[in-house]
Amino acid sequence: MTDRPEGQTHRPVNESPQSAHAPHSIILASGSPRRRELLARLGLPFNVVPSGAEEIVPVGLAPATVAEELACQKALAVARHYPECTVVGADTVVALAGPPSRIFGKPRDDVEAAAMLRALRGRWHQVSTGIVVVCAGDMWRDTVTANVRMHAYSDDEIARYVASGEPRDKAGAYAIQGLGGALVAEVRGSELAVVGLPLRRLAELLVASGVDLPVEPATIVDAWHRG
Question: Which residue range is the domain that position 65 belongs to?
Answer without folding.
Answer: 17-218
